[in-house]
Records
---
Amino acid sequence: MRRTRVLTAVLALAAGLLAGGPPALAADAPAPASVSKAADTYTWRNARIDGGGFVPGIVFNRGEPDLAYARTDIGGAYRWQESTRSWIPLLDSVGWDDWGHTGVVSIASDSADPDRVYAAVGTYTNDWDPGNGAVLRSADRGASWRKTALPFKLGGNMPGRGMGERLAVDPHDNDVLYLGAPSGHGLWRSTDAGVTWAEVTSFPNPGNYAEDPDDESGYASDNQGVVWVTFDESTGTAGSPTRTVYIGVADKENAVYRSKDAGATWERLAGQPTGYLAHKGVLDAENGHLYLAYSDTGGPYDGGKGRLYRYATATGTWTDISPVAEADTYFGFSGLTVDRQNPGTVMATAYSSWWPDTQIFRSTDSGATWTQAWRYTAYPERENRYVMDVSSSPWLTWGANPAPPEQTPKLGWMTEALEIDPFDPDRMMYGTGATVYGTEELTNWDDDTSFTIRPMVRGLEETAVLDLASPPSGAPLLSALGDIGGFRHTDLTKVPSMMFTRPNFTSTTSLDFAESDPDTVVRVGHVESGPHVAFSTDNGANWTAGTDPSGVSGGGTVAASADGGRFVWSPEGAGVHHTTGFGTSWSASQGIPAGAIVESDREDPETFYGFKSGRFYASRDGGATFEASPATGLPAGDSVRFKALPGRAGEIWLAGGAADGPYGLWHSTDFGETFTKLPGVEEADTVGFGKAAPGSSYQTLFTSARIDGVRGIYRSTDAGASWVRVNDDAHQWGWTGAAITGDPRVFGRVYVATNGRGVIYGDPADPDGGTDPGPPGACEVTYRVANAWGDGFQAEVRLTNTGTTAWDGWSLTWSFPDVERITQLWNGAHTQSGAAVTVRNADWNRTVAPGASAAFGFTASGPAAGATPSAFALGGRTCTVR
């Protein structure tokens, strides 16, 4: 189940990702370059879903407790924040031109200097991603990055992405790093902490395995290359490169290599098993054991056979330590971890056991014997060692009620990331195709007592957003998502209880509501079997499946009439169709080509619109017949988004295009008969509407566009006559070309669709132009510098309500004593002007009862010594400082 990760990305690519490639960047260039400051101050948050995508890698730092990172295939990288039990996004600064750098193929945390972290980025190795990969490096735990461009592509969303880690820091000489490359590019090394890279020409094998060598797209036919790097820390001394290094290669006959002279020469390990790929290689240096997880394919979806092996580094002896006989496997092994406090304890996952569930194995005697997370009693009944608690993310049940031996929620699938905390044997985290699960009672396993597994994913948002709608009443937001269908978001600060169900779509490609009857909603999407269309009469809370016209193979786009009495659907595999009622029967629309994008007029219930290959179409009879508009000069391709303006019949805004043709934003007031291209908007890819500004009668426009040479999210309150960029360089989220909408009830609020970072929404920090008075009552502040490095520091702030009245929202101000500047802040939103800083609450910590506290943290540039502010104020009232 949920095998559509690549499809989501391909859909996004088809929508216009190939418009341009990233420029070449010199080594040591800032990432990204500063191009513009926001002209209005916005705070940015996620509409909470918590997870939603594949997490192929989790990396704990072995030098500092509670420091961990997670990588995603299309949604960037994250750092674990222990104080809030949540993840902090680290790559929101990736811009439009570098969108491929939101795919993270590997991440490495420096245990000798925990402030250093590295990420190997790039989404596709074929031409879906026009840019090359890069290695990002940070000296402040990912708060800021510098970039070195590579001369080849990397594949964070390619087959084999769960193998690894491909990037590793030498534990004895942390200026030395290795990177395993795909596509036949071999092994690469840096000797200056990631600033420059050179191929290790002595390494003999660039790999030869491809999932499907005959795939003409280049996706499945790519050589998966060099897939992991492991250092033997017992073979070196501080300040000198580690002598012994193990390398995993995607080659079923020659999967593991070793160097004993710090990478000068290499040898194939003698006696190694063949016929499998080594997904992971994890070394227990204390006992001299290299553990290897093997599968017959590269994953993350496939894998039918697998083995676990232990290699004795001193004697060269190979031991098959597989927990089940080869004949009994229908899966490969990938997830692999060692308990660093108890090195004889090792765990592994059956990552490709899709049905009835994944399996996790544990050994406390170096693989001699194993126990497993669940077992059959009398088939189909099974007994679990664990209890699943998904109350924080209840949608993980998928609304399912499966028959045994399948259960819901599942233990997982695509479980290629598995790590025991090196400082805490009770804590384990593992990634799945939908979330990060974990436990803090792991050693209960050995006592044969139950332990609880919960989502450990708060703050990690990894959905690909395909469409958005914000109705004038009911839920403030409806989302159409890849892989998990979509949600009705009744509270943006809380995880929805369930995705759209009955039917469940693997990906919802389009949704719409009736403008004058927002309880009427329609959605279409991809599904393995059954109807591709569903209707709701209660604002998306409950759904009824419609019926498909003949030939439908995918969702396409759909539109609801203004009054909810008619629908027009342009599905994949069939032409445009229309219906009255709720899709019990459909009639073919005339005069419009198959594959057209369809929308409805938001005022006239008889009027629908379409666009295909540079031509605009309109229907004035409920979608029965369309006529082509005489308008010319519109974008030639199909990378177009358009919307009709609510409240004004026949008024349309159209965005789209490509670099080699017409590209920008167009406006029509005559039902699409003519369009006027807006001057000054060089490129635009989405358009949406929100509540009019105070004193204005025209709805606010939003677009993801390039204006005056600067890419960003823009707002206009004067019908496009002028524009304000509302995001900044720290908040770009890669590609934002799928959908955008304002909120018809909240001025200035905008919802932005991302390709892997979920639904982002922004609010003006001061939407009414007034002064935030702050909460009443007394306050106390504790300010602590938690970490410091050469040119920066990390601080933690706790704000306590010492008064007698609860706060509903707070705003803390202070001034730094020197040149300190905040680079990243979590659990709040900040603005800074010179030395003056204002931090406002997040949605979830706005209420602070008497005696209770709210905490936030940040990283900043500048000297830590003397950085403690002398005074803090809450709404003009001075706080006590402890």
Note: The radius of gyration is 27 Å.
---
Amino acid sequence: MSITVYVPRDSAAIALGANDVAVAISREAEKRGVEISIVRNGSRGMFWLEPMVEVATPQGRVAYGPVDPADVAGLFDAGFLQGGAHALQHGLTEDIPYLKDQERLTFARVGITDPLSLSDYLAHEGYAGLQRAIGMSSEAIVQEVLDSGLRGRGGAAFPTGIKWKTVANAQAAQKYIVCNADEGDSGTFSDRMVMEDDPFVLIEGMTIAGLAVGATQGYIYVRSEYPHAIAALNEAIATASQNGYLGDNILGSGKTFRLEVRMGAGAYICGEETALLESLEGKRGVVRAKPPLPALEGLFGKPTVINNVISLATVPIVLARGAAFYKNYGVGRSHGTLPFQLAGNVKHGGLVEKAFGLSLRQLLEDFGGGTLSGRPIRAVQVGGPLGAYMPQQQLDTPLDYEAFAAIGAMVGHGGMVVFDDSVDMAQQARYAMEFCAIESCGKCTPCRIGSTRGVEVIDKIISNDNRPQQVHLLRDLCDTMLNGSLCAMGGLTPYPVLSALNHFPEDFGSPAEKAA
């Protein structure tokens, strides 16, 4: 009888040698005359254990990792195909605390199924949401999403249902669904994992969105740096189309929805929804002034729903299990779960899906295990390169949109980059300004010129050139960028700069300069 062995095809695992491990296992089994079946699953999100190999046993899947091709013969000798003891063994995968203590809703299938197997997807609640949506009116679908409390997972946290309702009520012969998969924030990888490790859930979510607002065409805008995601999406779209889940007559309903992948050239600004639309239309990625809102005049001037990958990938479980089920997770106005991503100087980097409400400290210590260096955590940047640097005294802040906004921070896409006490926060502030200067689309003066001047001012502060006056000038410049920029690129760059100035004034000179 064939034994099933799981070796991830996620690009993080591949980068760490998963393909070579799969080949080594296959050859060793052949050499020993053992019949095995290798499934290339997604990653469980425990990146410090990658490549993590799992073996199906009567008790459940047993995990081994990180596995190197040189370890394979020893694993066979130890009887790993039967779940045998070995130095790399971690017991039953589901019992590993990092995974066991999560609340996986959007990521329920990730790491469990073969990402490109439609039968696997269907066997794990796949397309249950679409099946229900087909029997509902478009108004009822929109209301379900509204009632769930689902908010945009791309950064702005705008209620998804309100955006959908606006597009649904707009009158137009053609409407579009656009997925913003231009995941460019440092320390983020949840979008990539969905696209590579469970692409059908994104396809299903976009199809439900199409039915909800009357859109017949969808586009997934993926950054060129994600070749594995692009390949997985294209294959999954072809499979869905061949099996009646996309196309002119979805599941015999008479409803139409078509889907295509479009590749972006890697401009950070194209993560901003209007710049993304410009790029999708074949133009230079430059921010549009609003109004009009994309919901009314978006792609090619037509009403358009633009949502992030995680927002759309969460819709199927909302429809499958109902709004009340999803809304029951979380705190306050932050409903449901978010896949938090731990990166930087952290011992256990990876993905943790939890309901809103746990503290930043719980996430970094209970899941992340503290810093990889073993030194104390000094700062954590939450929400990408435009997110605030949060000091030790803010680590007990609950992960909740409103709680973060109240202290001048943002949850954003859930990415977190950890720094130990050796970090120079003046240099980190400079990095934020320089990042903005490089990635600005250049359309508005506060962002285009302000970020360039910002780098110059921070350089003067670092070199102690009339430091008090330069700190005052930097704060004034940040105020102009915050209130005068056309989009969030310039408007959010002051967050990391001011947080570094406010919480780590000693890195800019002396504590007295905090109020300068």
Note: Residues 512-516 have pLDDT under 50 and may be disordered.
---
Amino acid sequence: MTEREPKADIPPTIPETQARIAPADPLAAVEPVPAEAEHVPEPPDVNFAEYYHEARPRTLRHRARVRSTVRRRSVSQDGPASGENPVYVSWLLSQSMLGHADELARQFSGQGSMWQNPYASPGPRHAVETASVWFTAYPISLITASGESFLAALGNEELWQAFETIGIEGVHTGPVKKAGGLSGWQPTPSVDGHFDRISNELDPAFGTEDEFRAMCATATWHGGTIIDDIVPGHTGKGPDFRLAELAYGDYPGIYHMVEIEQSDWGMLPDVPPGKDSANLDAATEEALEKAGYIVGRLQRVIFYREGVKETNWSATGEVTGVDGVVRRWVYLHYFKDGQPSVNWLDPTFAGMRMVIGDALHSLADLGSGALRLDANGFLGVEKAGSGDPGWSEGHPLSEAANHLIASMVRKVGGFTFQELNLTVDDIKVTSEAGADLSYDFINRPAYHHALATSDTEFLRLTLRTALDLGVDPASLVHALQNHDELTYELVHWTAGHTDELFHFRGEDMRGGDLADTIRRDLCDVLTGADAPYNLIFTTNGIACTTATVIAASLGISALDDIGPDDVERIRRVHLLLVMFNAFQPGVFALSGWDLLGMLTLPPDSVSDLLNSGDTRWISRPAHDLMGHRPDAERSSSGMPRGRSLYGSLPDQLTEETSFVRQMQAILAVRKRSGVATARQVDVPDVSHRGLLVMVHLLDDDRTSVTVLNFADEQVDAFVRSEHLAPGATVTDLFSGETVGTVDDLNGFRIGMAPFRATAVVLEPPADDADED
């Protein structure tokens, strides 16, 4: 194999030992520094997986593979779409996820390939070492080259050369398999951005299986990893759900669905014309609970809308089954009515088989190296007594199911991460046996609050809470924007610790009141008349991009008024947020909306999508990473193009002061210093309300300190922590220059410009070094 030449229009990667940020401003242009000035840390102890596969690169460790791709049968469509038509039933079976999963699973039974990897315990640091910087894609928002599919674009050699240059090591594709539902023979569109999966097949709108495999190969060539999705919590109303309605075989066991006796149909609502189900109101939900059919109301009604979704239960219309019996069912859906929930404790274990088959297809057939688990916190439902809501969050069945999924993924050589917005206690419990990594819902709303208020008190509280409760920051995915809203549910404070007292703003405050205060602060600053370009999304959070969070925090009231000076201010704050997320142990993740500095869409440009009340569509503008189609007004999926403040990746990579170039330097220092696998040991008090200090113990036993200024003012910072040894030399990780010495009070001083961040490392006093 010959060595490939880099693309001519992509600057070569700056050697890791030669990249630095100017000492006067760590968030500035990249300059060379002599390699010999850099400290080379001792290699850390290897973990079991590294020892077991010591000679293999991380991306080439043992991975179980299918012996042959399962061929999907082509079945003709003829006759009525009913359970009495065998052709229709056969067609549904040929399309079903459970059927495909059963065929695929047989290839792995009795094979030695299933016993080559450790699988019992999560390995967060192993996952971080595999890929510690992720790009999170959103398929329907990516503008590709003319005639190029989404998957072909993500497998493009030029894009991966750019990613490698920047320091991006993993790509989360987002959901790319068929989603939506079926109405008779006809497909219906997705109701939740392709998170309502109905097939293991890829959606042709995003590309082919061959393109997915080629993308994985290109990623591996560049030392990267592809991260796919599975959805353990629900499906769409596709072939599997329609077969369940027809009472065919094991299929009703996939879902939380209950057959209602015909004598009780009078309790059920009529299904409106053009619909296939009707949501239950609270009174009907209670009546069905008392009649012994369902567990009743649950702890939360996600996406609650009066008259639309008042409970988590819906009733089907009359359906004639394969046995000729006419039935009506009531089914559970935590999310939208088109997302029936999977039952993980049915005697057939059909739901489990279906989900595991989907995971095996992504990992062992398509070639991805990791999976995101969606809606995996709601896998257990249990009836409560004394009129209390049913137990549906933090349930032991969810923990057990997540352990099974994550163990299976580890068993075939991959890793998992979860987006689990539960209490910190529950995240801790799930991290002990479940997914390898968890999305950082703990600190995500808190760092936005610090920016909006120029006060890090709540952010310090969330960081300390995680440490106190034993959540390792290295097990978290610290992210900028993703496909969802800026979540401010603050479940830890509104659910598990509502009545617990927390000291905040000089007084003891109940957890529930604290959450209300934080939400009010965020809404006051980031939405409303002064920031009409950000919209509240139900009770979950705020629809926005990172750039528009910053714009609102800076007092910019109209996006059209943003000029060159404003772009520079937004970019500086954006890099501050990069530093906060990247200079913690764990994964740092960002999206195309971050890379290009995208603004939200005008609501009237997506008015049809907003009709359902889902305001998140304004924060998903189409964007062109590589600048292939500068004149394109929409993505191939129809999303309108948004405004980019920073420009395409090729353009940014030719400009030393661009957002991407400066982030590249930050990530190079992050990788060289080993922050991603360090241990966070302290989040000390600060000398100014806008400051944040995080203290980390690196793998080479040196102490690193990250200092961030969330205030728009110069601060003469005094940094103090019991973990700072008196007499230690304070060295700037970016410039390599000595910036001070730790005094007898375990502290040092450092000047912090507005919205500036820096990181330093402590070298032991000369006497200590001599003793070593």
Note: Residues 564-582 form the longest helix (19 residues).
---
Amino acid sequence: MDIVLVTTVIASLFLVIGAAEPLAARLRMPYSVILAVLGILIGAGAIFFLRTELTDALNPVAEAILGLPIRSNVFLYVFLPTLLFQATLGMNLRRILDDWVPILVLAVVAVVVATLSVGYALAWASALPLAACLLIGAIVSTTDPSAVVTIFRSISAPRRLARIIEGESLLNDAAAIALFGVFMGFVMLGMPDPDLDEALSRFPVLIAGGAFTGWLAARVAVWMMALFSRHELAQISISIALPYLAYIGAEQSIGASGVIAVVAAGLTLNLTGPGRLPPQAWANLREIWDVLAHWAGALIFILAALLIPRLLEEVRLEDFVLVGVVILAAIAARAVILFGLLPLLTALKLSPEVERPYRVAILWGGLRGAVTLALALAVTESFRVPDEISRVVGILATGFTLFTLIVQGTTLRTMIGWLGLDRLSPIDQALSRQVVAVALQTVREDVARTTENYELSHDTVRSEAKRFGVRLDAAVKSAEDSADILDRDRVTLGLIAVAGHERDTIIERVRDRTISARMAEQILSDADRLIEGARSQGRSGYNRAARRSVAYGRGFRVAVLLNGRLRLSGPLARMTADRFELLLSQRLILRDLGTFIDGRIRRIHGRRVADLLHELLARRIETVETALEGLRLQYPGYAEKLERRFIRRTTLRLEEREYTAMREDGLIGAEVYTALMQDLDARRAVAEERPHLDIALQRAELVRQFPLFAEIDDAVLKRLGRALETRYVNAGEVIIRKDSAARSVFFIASGAVELETAGQTWRLGRGEMFGQMAILMKKARRAEVRAIAPSTLLVLDEARFRRLLDRSAALQDAVRASAEKRGVDPDDLF
């Protein structure tokens, strides 16, 4: 085939891709539907011109279109890794992990249910062997969520819902393709009735092998990219190679799932890349992958759609009945998941509640597309698959895809409108009227200052001011008419606005490099949780998310366990350093939110709401300060090092801004500017390195700070430092339960606890101890102790505590004072 002609056809396809997006926006239809329709029209047109006797002038073009080397391997080995890898890079992993249970259950269970439903329905309605029917079921189980997610974003649907749909679809494709490989093997071996137990037993092996291959490939790639830290193009080139090598390595080397390998590689790079690569290099890498995925997604739709006319050439009347069976079985299987399994997960508190209208939209928005067609094409190309099975697989997969694209895709937005999802709630409508009124008042003030500065014509200014005043009066009247919004709703809306501004501020700080890229994802995830918590549960949800942002997570607890049991201090040191940086960044951001509340929230929602938001913000700042102070007490020198690092990074950012301004003003030339920036980049690379945290050295210093241990000599202090175990507890966590056995004494290194016994309550803070009364009185514990702030406790077992008590007069005095406060005779303790 003439290379010039092929190049012309491919370049023309890019013109089609460029025109499809604005056409989809104009027609208010999903982008994928427009691409598929255009591809079908191009393919049908090529067949028409090649076979018609009207003209032969377009025969070379038609032959070039129909002769394009479109094979299933092109889709599976070229386009599919690109789409999957970019999808994983674009995910917020921390938020995905929040919902890993519903995502994993929905993905895996949905694929299995759809495969079995379609497979057994076809086996009942046709003469096809069960293996072929299950193969078709696996093929049509893949979903394309782009249409419904795009619409959900345009109507401000809950972010968490869109995230679950995207995550479920990603794993859905991986699981479906893995099952496809299993049943394809049965069909090619001529096994009409496969043993499902054997088929499903191979499924975990495919997933585990692919996951390990992808993880290993990504770790090697990240190591290489870190070596080339000053060569951005080299890093991007390595990232381009990663998904393809992971896919081929898994498929060809160990016979595992290449799709799972690509997903695992992308997730690993997403998790480790921001901390190992320069911020700008990571941002550029993701932008390039966004472009590659856009092209790959568009080309896979168009090229797959080109094949549809050929796949339908041998269609028979009875095939339409089987297509109907596939449609009904697939929709029924999806409905079982959405209206049966999803509410069950919600009842078990494993998934957020998804309202019925959204579930209907997800059901109708489950479009199929290029992946389904690519898998069907792989079947039709295989010479080891019987001709009749090959023909039916191609027709049923194609017919089902056309139904989802043409029927469901074109009516999806109408369905959204019919469900009322595109209409604002009464609260949002009232809020929008108040926002317009406040915005117009601000605009009037700014315009008045502008006209004075430019000395415009008085008559013109007065005429325009009168015209604008009419609109402003109408907006103010409309806002006053909606004054019946409850304060509770105003607080919720205010919290959402404050959390949204917090997120915007974080992004700006990351762009300015005040906050490191390493911590950006975690801080942004915390801000997203604040937004979603406020949307779903108002003030209580916001407060719960705020407490979680400073709480000790499961990973931190595992790191503490590794350090205490196995003496592996590396994970704990790294996570403690992350916590330091996180709290410092949160404090920096929170102190900027008060101005936003006074400048915006007060004008929209009034003084009462603004004062309440200030109170909530003050509590957050106090909680962050308490947690940060606890870390300062534990690691005094390290906090100072981090603050110095922050100052140096801020100085470098301001210095860069000055050089850029001088360059734009023509005060310095390009050569001088380049030399200055090279020197600045070298100093920034040093400033970006986070100081090392030595857990062991800081532990001895922490014990030395306790007033109770002040009189103990250094030798005993060292032994005590080794004997004490560190325990981290979150606010609300029960430390000691009533009637539990007394085996340990607790010393508060940071934070605060609340002790309740016999209807009385005491609060204890840093430097105090608890748990000693039950040990000394040799009785079961009668008190319940609960943390009221993120706290760090030092735990000492009974035997060591008694030996220490005999040596320390200060400790004896503290025990006596504690006993007197609780009405216990101190002489009964000794």
Note: The mean pLDDT is 77.
